[in-house]
Amino acid sequence: MTVTRYFALLEIPQGLPQPSQFAIREEALSDLAPNEVRIRNRWLSVDPYMRGRMSGVTTYVEPYALGEPMSGGAVGEVIASRHPHFQQGDRVRHMAGWRDVAQLPGEEVEPLPKFDVPEQAYLGVLGMPGMTAWTGLNLIAELQPRQRVLVSAASGAVGSLAVQLAKAADCHVVGVAGSPAKCEWLESMGATAVNYRGKDVDALSQALHEASPEGYDIYYENVGGPLLEAALANLRDHARIAICGMIDRYNATGPSGGPGNLNQLLFRKARMEGFIVGEHWSHYQTFLEQVAPEVEREEIRYRETVVEGLEQMPDAFLKLFSGENEGKMLVRLP
Questions:
Q1: Residue 69: which domain range?
Q2: Span between the terminal Cα atoms of the chain, in Å
Q3: Does the residue 40 lie in any domain?
Q4: What's the CATH number where 141 sits?
Q5: Which of 28, 53, 309, 322 has the highest CB neighbour number within 10 Å of its CB?
Q6: 119 and 175 both lie in a single domain
Q7: pLDDT tens, residue by residue, 198-244
Q8: 168: part of which helix (H) or strand (E)?
Q9: Averaged pLDDT, 117-125
Q10: Which pLDDT value is given to residue 60?
C-alpha cells in the first residue's frame, strides 16, 4: 500500500494566511487505474498566485476546496505507470504539488524537456515563471530593441528573467527590488536598480525619474499599489504596461483606492493589459527554444531559495510575502 502525505487548507484566510490554517494529512492511494501514473515528487513549486486560490472565490482558476488536497507545480519521478507513454524512472512535471506522492491521469503529466539544466529549473526559469516573463514582454508589451523598460519585483523568479530578456534586446532596464543585496544583484546584470523600501509614492516617482529621465516605454507590473502610481507618472507616449500580478493586494482584507493618476494612460496614449500565462501556453515551445539554450550556457542567471521537506511548505509560501526569498521559491523533498 502506498500512502501520500498532502497539505489541506482548513479555513479561508483573512489577510496574511497563518500556519495553523494548513494541515498535513495522509491517504492511502488506490491501485493504479488504466492510464494513470504514480509519481514521487522531488520538487514543489511555491508561487504567489496560490494566495488567490485560498480566497474561496473563483478567479481565473478554481479556489482550493477546504479539507481537500492542495495543488501546484511539481517535478518528480514516475514510480509506477499504467500509461503507455510513461515508464518507471521518467522525470516529469505536473500540477499535483503540495504532497509527496501524486497519482493522476497520464494526460495531466508531461515529460521534462531534454535540456541540460537542473530538473527544478522547469518550475522556475524554464517553467511557468520564466514563460510568464517572456510572455509579458514579448506578447503583451511587444518589446522592441533599445526601449526603456521598468520591472517591479525585479529580483524574483519572473522579474529577474524579464530584466535579462530586456537587457538582451539592448534596452535600458530599471529594476525595482526591496533590499540592497537584491539591488546589487540586479546591477550585476546591467540593470539600474531602485530600492523601494521606505519610499512613498512621491519618493518612488522621483527615484524612477532619476533612473530613467526619459521615462518608460514598458512597465512590467508584478506589484501594484504605490509603485504602479509612481510608474504611471513616468510613462512615455504609447507606453505599454503588462500586468502579471499585484502582490500588494493579495492579502488585503478590503477594497483600496486605485491609482490617483490613472489619467496618465490617456495623456500618454498608453495601454495597460493584464494576462494569464496559461492562455499563451501554445507558445511555450518557442519560449524554450529561445531561452533554454541560454540557460544551458549559463548566459541567463537565476536564483533559487530552497526549503527542505514537505512540512515546510506553508512556511515557504508565507516567505513570499515577507520578501525573504531570492528568485524562485522551491521545496525539495527527500
A1: 3-124+304-332
A2: 20
A3: yes
A4: 3.40.50.720
A5: 53
A6: no
A7: 999 999 999 999 999 999 999 999 999 999 999 999 999 999 999 99
A8: helix 157-168
A9: 98
A10: 85
Of 305, 294, 326, the residue nearest 120 (C-alpha): 305
Instruction: Show Cβ contacts of residue 192 under 8 Å, excluding neighbours closer than 6 positions.
Output: 172, 173, 174, 175, 211, 212
Q: Which three cell numbers stand for residue 266?
A: 490617456
Q: Which three cell numbers stand for residue 309?
A: 521537506
Residue 299 within any structural domain of the chain: no
Residue 96 — φ and ψ, nearest 5°?
-100, 60
Per DSSP (E only), the strands in 135-183 are 148-151, 172-177
Cα distance between residue 211 and residue 217, in whole Å = 14
Give percent above pLDDT 90 in the chain.
Answer: 93
Rg (CA), the chain: 20
CB 207 within 8 A of CB 182: no
d(CA 44, CA 50): 13
Mean pLDDT of 53-66: 93
**Structure-model confidence comparison of residues 185 and 324, the more confident one:** 185
DSSP string spanning 191-256? -EEEE-TT--HHHHHHHHHHH-TT-EEEEEES--HHHHHHHHTTEEEEEEEEE---GGGTT-SS--
CATH code of the domain containing 87: 3.90.180.10
Answer yes or no: do 136 and 9 share one domain: no
Do 132 and 255 belong to one domain?
yes
Q: How far apart are CA 122 and CA 189, in angstroms?
A: 22
pTM over 0.90: yes
Q: Half-sphere exposure (CA, 13 Å, Cβ side) for 207?
A: 22
Contact 252, 283 (CB under 8 A): no
pLDDT confidence bin for 248, thresholds 50/70/90:
confident
Whole-angstrom distance, CA of residue 22 vs CA of residue 29: 21
pLDDT at 325: 87
Specify which residues 173 forms β-bridges with: 149
Residue 133, C-alpha cell as written in the block = 516573463
Domain shared by 235 and 151, yes or no: yes
Whether residue 151 sits in one domain with residue 34: no
Amino acid letter for position 11: E
Judge whether residue 257 has pLDDT over 80: no
| CB of 218 closer than 8 Å to CB of 144 | no
| Joined grid coordinates for residue 70 | 492542495
